[in-house]
Amino acid sequence: MAKNTGNNRIPVKWVRDRAKAAYDKKDTCYICGTKEDLELHHVYSVTLLLQGWAEKMGYDISTDEGILAVRDEFIETYHKELYDDVYTLCNHHHVKLHGVYGKKPPAHTVDKQVRWIEMQKAKVSNGEINIVKTIGHVSFSAFT
């Protein structure tokens, strides 16, 4: 997608601004339980979802006006990925996760991200990994 100097902000920021009010960010890190420096992690990269969707739909989101015209439709289309397929993580664990899967983890890493999160949680609790989340159509059983 060509860059347009008329775009004051990157398109995903406009989407996040609109969606942010409805995020259900928990008050503790899912992995370690800390209450400090919490961030919301989307297992589906919002940037990649938005870029793929805009291309598929033939929408030009290279300008502020272009993304503002379609962001509500995007949020409605990807409601589950934006609001349900998320984890509240502390900055430490969020940075570690992105260190493993990259800044914009591809969709094929979703199951691996969930497993990684659960494994980190198990390391912290020194116990069995209990999968409490199902992403997409994949369900997991507990590791022993």
Descriptive report:
By secondary structure, this protein is mainly alpha-helical. It has one domain. 47% of the residues lie in helices and 7% in strands. It has 6 helices and 2 strands; from the N terminus they run αβαααβαα. Strands 1-2 form a two-stranded antiparallel ribbon. α1 (11-19) crosses α3. It is elongated. It starts with 10 loop residues before the first helix and ends in a 19-residue tail after the last helix.
Layout of helices and strands:
Elements: H1 11-19, E1 38-42, H2 46-57, H3 64-77, H4 79-84, E2 86-90, H5 91-101, H6 110-125
Antiparallel strand pairs: 1-2
Helix pairs in contact: 1-3
Radius of gyration: 17 Å
Number of H- or I-type helical stretches: 6
Q: What is the approximate shape?
A: elongated
Q: List the helices and strands in order.
A: HEHHHEHH
- First and last CA, distance: 46 Å
Please describe the structure with a list of short key phrases separated by commas or semicolons.
47% helix; two-stranded antiparallel ribbon; single chain; mainly alpha
Brief description of this entry?
With 144 residues, the protein is mainly alpha-helical. Helices cover 47% and strands 7% of the residues.
